[in-house]
Amino acid sequence: MSTEDENYQIDKRESADRKVPKNPIYMDLNRFIRGLVTPAPAPLKQPAIQRWLDEEVHFGHTFLWFPIALIAGAYFNFTRQNDIPIAALILPFSILLTIRVCINGLSVRSKYIVSLGMAFIVGAIAVNFEHRGEFIILDQSVTINVEGLVIAKEIGVNDMPRYKIEVVDTSNPRIFRSPTVIQLVARSSHKVFEVGEPIKGRARLSPPSGPVFPGGYDFSSAALQKNIGAYGFFYGKPEREVLSAPPKLDLRTKFLVSVNWVRSEIAYRIRQQLDGDAAGIASALIVSDRRAISKSAVESLRASGLAHVLAISGLHMVLASGTFFFALRLILSLFPTLVQSFPVKKIAAFGAIIAASSYLTISGAPISAQRAWIMLVIVLLAVLMERPAITLRNVAIAAIVITVISPSAVMTPGFQMSFSAAAALVAIYTGWANFSAAYERSRGGIYDGFIFLVRFFIGLAATAIIAGLATGIFAVQHFYQFAGYGVLGNVLAMPIVTLLVMPLALLSVLLMPFGLETWPLMAMGWSIEIVIMIAEWVASLGSNIAIGKPSPIASFLASVGFVVFICFRSKLRFTGLALIGFSALGLLMVNPKIPDMLISEDGKLVGIRKSNTNQLSINRSRPSKFILDQWLDAYKFQIGKPIQLSNKQKAKELLSEEAVEFWPKFDGLSNQTAFAEFKCVSSQFCYFENSEVKIATITDQRYLRIACDRANIVILSTRLKDENSTCDKNVMVLDQNSLRRTGSLALYRNLDKTSQSTLDWNIVSAINNSVRPWTSHRYYDWRSRSYKMPNGEIVKYHGLTNFKANAPELNTKTNDSGE
């Protein structure tokens, strides 16, 4: 053996004999000392951004950007005015696929960019494929006889049932373009129908409303995702009758009917033992039925940061399946023979997968529950295969699956808030686990128990802070408010939810087949009452912070910043914090553009903002609370209600006058008031005037001439029967038909002009001539059975399949009468 080999062996043995502690502090100090005595290598001639990007590839986080690209593609297609033709998407996808497969010599970075482009296009294509089937939204309100099959039911606060009905037939009048599924409330006292029973009655049906202001939440789109074509209520008691033609249900619908029967039976068992908000919240936690929760309880939970408890998500799924996992593992471990012969942990993991799948089924599978189930199944499969369980890749896989199957979900608050919370918690948890593992020391006894409790409550507080900040970005975008004391509410209430409410919920469901659920449900109800008390106390502190509607730029910067911060591991992640900081700065310093006038899509509620103030004058003494509350949340208005100028008899006499006699008498009455509010002769005629605009709102076409004589904007809440009977060309007339096509309107003053012409207003429409599956019903005319498209084209509806903007076989052009 040579001298060099001997020295090598000696050095090797000495290195093996030295037991270097795996202490991060020691390792950092060791590297620091070696850096002092060892010459540093020559710096690489590489830009910083290049090094950071290489680090991202090394960390393996590049996969996380594929679901981001999918979501971006779905969002891009979903927000277009019209469907993007499949051919226009397949062509660029084919080009990118050819480049990716056939061109040699592409760098790794180029291949990755091409793959992201393909993922973007796949997300856009998925939107087109999601709504290819038959789906019809009712075109306008109608009173009809309806008969169908109850496929789901929910019981409300006042024990009023709400039925989801598969429509079999309509009559008196018969609807040619009838929705397949409707949802009706039965107000009259009656024996509640069970899921699967036939139902018949006289009902008032209305289409789902669009956004209550441009840029607001689109309820028609949400109805499309739930496959509900109309909402309404029964007149009187619905009847039980044998259907004239029972519907032919496919296997999927039959399965859903069976599942909904089980869900309604569980909700019934809960109501038998509990009442009030305790019963409503218990139903929400087990079968995702929230209708029995009072509005005051919902507001308290939202203001205290506990509203997430009502949405079945990762918390509920983990608590239910986790409790089942540990309980099953504990029971099996009591038998030494089983422990020695079988992998007990893996058996418990498999049982937890079955429990989670059952919970997903009876919960109705909302988006948040789907995300949680996919992630949980991946974690439990990792346990079965003895692989690392909780990683951001699991979140990414769940996002890919849901986006491909249901791309419209990316537009919902549930999807955005659920995934943002999950991604933030997993990212922080992974970093914390790596850090704490290096310093963890066990001393045994009481000390370890104390440390466990401390970590438990610190973990709750940290979870509340992280999830609150992550979801707060999207909560402000959708709900325009933020729970200031959310951390306090979660620290006080979540131990009760974690240790009592959810384990008792699981035990109750497991005992229901044996009729032994009474005591677990009662204990669950007591626990829920404590949670409600905590929520009410925290809400009483005034913790709900009203933010108002953020600007699109601030929302975009915050969203991109969050994604960058979560998906990057190198110093590039700090650019995400910078973007979030700029977004927050924009919220504080930049005043959002506030409409000067708002008009609801039915024309019944109109608001005009006084110049340079947040005071909004409205034309209704008893406005729609549903619409007005959203206006107030978004723009933080102070409301000025109209002034009633006369009694009913005086109003009737005044409105019977001609315009020449009406206005002097009206001015005589209105001059007695000094407030710049709407002045109403009755609910049928209101008038507002200032130096910039003159507005008349009427409910009957008979008063159109009076309104047109002075106003330059006339809003009619009914259909203009005689379209030739209109005002001067300088007067803008909006009736029920025109508003049905445009949706709600926001008008902004044009400061470059000073006259009172309607041309001085920039008008923004909520629908903006969009032709999509959830807006096409607005252009349908039942008299001619055709669609009058925004571009003037007439498209005949044949009744064979749902209207599609890109279906040339339906494009039968006719004249304006539809003949």
What is the strand tally? Answer: 22
Distance between the termini: 105 Å
Strand order of the largest sheet: 11-10-9-8-18-19
Strand content: 5-15%
**Class inferred from helices and paired strands:** alpha+beta
Largest sheet: 6 strands, mixed
Radius of gyration: 32 Å
Backbone shape? globular
Blueprint of the fold:
Layout: H1 3-17, H2 24-37, H3 48-59, H4 65-78, H5 86-102, H6 108-130, E1 142-155, E2 161-171, E3 181-185, E4 198-206, H7 219-226, E5 230-239, H8 251-273, H9 276-287, H10 295-303, H11 314-333, H12 336-341, H13 344-362, H14 367-384, H15 392-405, H16 413-439, H17 445-479, E6 481-483, H18 486-511, H19 518-540, E7 544-546, H20 552-567, H21 573-589, E8 597-599, E9 606-609, E10 615-618, H22 625-635, E11 638-640, E12 643-644, H23 648-655, H24 659-670, E13 679-682, E14 685-689, E15 694-698, H25 704-710, E16 713-716, E17 732-734, H26 736-742, E18 745-749, E19 761-765, E20 780-781, E21 786-788, E22 794-796
Parallel strand pairs: 3-5, 10-11, 12-13, 15-16, 16-17
Antiparallel strand pairs: 1-2, 1-4, 2-3, 4-5, 6-7, 8-9, 8-18, 9-10, 13-14, 14-15, 18-19, 20-21, 21-22
Helix pairs in contact: 4-6, 4-15, 5-6, 8-9, 9-19, 10-19, 11-13, 11-14, 11-18, 13-14, 14-15, 16-17, 17-18, 17-20, 18-19, 20-21, 24-25
